[in-house]
Structure formats: structure tokens, C-alpha cells
Give the backbone structure.
Amino acid sequence: MHFSGFRVIKEALTGHKGWKPLWRDPEPQPEYDIVIVGGGGHGLATAYYLANTFGEARVAVLEKGWLGSGNIGRNTTIIRSNYLLPGNEPFYEFSMKLWEGLEQEFNFNAMVSQRGILNLCHSDGQRDAFRRRGNAMLLAGADAELLDRDGVRAMYPFLNFDNARFPIKGGLLQRRAGTARHDGVAWGYARGADRKGVDIIQNCEVTGFRIEGGAVRGLETTRGAIRARKVGVAVAGSSGLVMAKAGMRLPIESHVLQAFVSEGLKPCIDGVITFGAGHFYVSQSDKGGLVFGGDIDGYNSYAQRGNLPVVEDVIEGGMALMPRIGRARLLRSWGGIMDMSMDGSPIIDATHIDGLYLNAGWCYGGFKATPASGYAFAHLLATGRPHPTATAFRLDRFARGHVIDEKGVGAQPNLH
Amino acid sequence: MLIPHPLLGLRDAQEFTYLGDAALLDRPDGGDEAAFFDYTYLRDNPAGQHRELWFHEQGDRSWLVVTRDTRTHEIVSAELASDVKRRGGA
């Protein structure tokens, strides 16, 4: 089934009776070349690129719940490549370029909207840091503009420019950044992978690894044993639990990050705005709800729900930035479980177990990385070598002292 | 979330600073590089009961070892870290 304007009109005229399921519901085969654990955005993207770009024919994705039930369905849908460090920026810019061609490539509307992201600064020091970051972005082929106070005011006149503690001094704008529809991304990758023959197996939880002589041979699952030459684990949030079944401890703690959406409002915020002084970010969904979030709750959690103090903290950030947000009613909040890695940066690497690969540690920022993460992980699984943009995301970087300290906040997860 | 402080009774978790796994009480000798790498970076990260360190920064500045279920936020117990240490570690 190919999506097109003609198809939409035809279905509209014939009662929408011709739409079909977007992917099959196959029984697990006893053996695959490559099994991806985790049917979230990263796992599905990995499977898609394995089949589509690297020509792997016998690939399966195992998902313990239903597609989109993990972090891909529990985030604030922002895409951007405004990173600073050489180990990071080319990777996220690669991801941004994949986002730009994504919908045409997999013939599915993921509602990629390059509405721009504006990071506000509130002090001279912060502006200097943003100038440096913008230059690093330009050097990596991304786009960046430094706005002064008047430039910000022209875009968003309703912001609280004269907040006594955090006056707005300007902002770093990436116009190519924006948002994408998270469910559409998962469904588009799932459909694309399925069309290339990938078996997407839902309600199939991995209960153990079959490891012989230091090499992975397959998996034990709730739907039987599956043999595999290579296994790629992409289960952000649950990486610690799944890899523990393979006897590994990771430099990761699982934390809850809450997000919020207000009642539907008329269009008032056309881009993404982040409050540089605190950790608050906001955009408006196509349905009109203000979508926003802030810090992690700050202690280990698998609860998929947070606690009230952080709700209060996030709303305070929002009120400081745009006081009129106080007139909107909060519709709902939700919590996703994050892999908080010890340097706040991801891991895409082989493990010491032959044939077992890990994609983990995305902290807050896994959604924007979805295309590049899938591509780089597929590259690693298919060729055995890291993708050129992902060479810094090594598992052993902590032991070697080569951490990627993007935010300059040290190794403690509670400081991210 | 309320933490049952052994001396002060129920206290709001907001008065505390979280410092992670209670196993961090047992710091290895800095000369043992491999053990110190494990200590600094690697975590068990369990889903379920987790023994963890909370510092009562805005209270009596004591360190507590709190046992909490990471799936439900239910707190099972809290004891003074000094008592735990005296008993022979976490």
C-alpha cells in the first residue's frame, strides 16, 4: 500500500474501506541473522536501515509490549542538532538531515515540522557560550543564528523579558530544528521495515540471553527461544534490566522524566522555546496543546510516573518565562523512563560478548536522535564498524577517561 | 514522597538530596583502578527494591539509607547511614 494524494482522495470517495494494516503480525521464526530487542523508535529505525540500506534479509524486532508503548510514545517530539562537542554535533546533524528526507524515504507522514528552536540566554556568559555553540554548529554544517533581545522580541513578544532574576538577553536560534509526530515516526519505520521483510514481533519479552563461549547465540523470550547470529539491544529506559540478563552492569541509572500538555489553545507558539536559566522547554502541538517539560525527578525510577515537586518546578519555569501560561489548564502529564548515562551522552557499541551490541544511554535526548541512532546502529551491526558520526559513543569511554561531557556537569546523573 | 526519617519522623523528600545506590558507602581503595571504575560508573539499576542514599540537606544533615521500590516509589524503610556503616557496610 503506497500513500499518495491520489490515494487519500480515492479512499475519501470510497468510504475509507481500502486502508490496510501497516505491518504484518508474524509468528517468531526459530532463527534470524539479526534480532533487535526493543520495538521503539531506535529499534525500529535500526531494523529499517538494516533491511533497506544494508540489505540484511533475516531481521526481527522483538517488543515486549505494543509498538510505541515505550519512550517513543512518551516524549515531547522535539528534533534539533544544536550540540557543541565534536563527538556529538556531526551525529545530531546527520540525524537532522535524515529527518529532512524521512517522510519521502519511507512514504509516511511523520509530520516533520521545521518550525525552529530558540534557546534563550539570560546573562552575558550564557550568550558567549551560545555564540561558541552556534559556531560549532556552523562548522559541522548545521545552521545557527544568534539573536539579540530585539530579535527575540520580534519573534515572541509575549515572553517575560524583564524577569528580575532571569532577564532575556537573546537567544540561539536553529531554524531547521522543530518537531515531528512521535507515533508517526514509529509507525513509519515499522511499516518501512515490514515492507522490507523485517518480522516485527509484539508482546514478546526477552527473558534471557543464550551465550556460549563468550558469543551470543540467541534469546529466550516469552514466545519461545530464538536463535540469532547477532543481537542488538535498543531498549532505552530498560537497558540496565535487559543487559543484566546478559550479566552486564552499565554506566546507567534509570530515571523518570515528566512531560505535560495543556488544553488545546489557539495557535500562539509557532516554534520551540527553551528557557536557558532553568530546564524548561515548550512547543505547541498541531492539536493546540502546549507541550512542555523540565528536569528529571532525580532518583532511580521505573514507575513511568513522577511526583508533584517536579510538576511544581516545571510550571514555575513556565510561569517565569511566559506568565500567560498560568491561564491555561493542564490537561495531563506523563513520565517516561530514561537511561541516564554517567556523562549524559549515549552509547552505541559492541559489548565484550561476541555478537551482542548495545544502543543505550540516551538520557533526555533520544527522540531527535532516532534516525541517526538507527542508521549508526544498523551500520555497526551490519559492518562491525562504528558509523563515522558515532565513533565517540563507546561503551569503554568511562574506563578510558574519554567521556562526552556535553553539558559540563560532571558524572553524576542527578546533575544532568 | 515522604521519607520516614529514623529520628525526625516523616519528612518531605524535597528536603533531601539524592546520591544514588547505597553501595556507594563502600568505597574501594583508589589504588585498585578496576574496582574504582566499577564504583564510580557502573550501577545495578534494579527495578524493585533499591537501597539508596539520601542526604537530609535541609534538615539535620544526616545521611540516610532508604529502601524504596523503584517501580512504585513506595518507601519500605529508612535508617541512618552511620548505623549501616557501623554494622559493616551497605
Summary: Chain B touches chain A at residues 1, 13-14, 17-21, 37-38, 40-47, 50, 52, 68, 70-73 (CB under 8 Å).
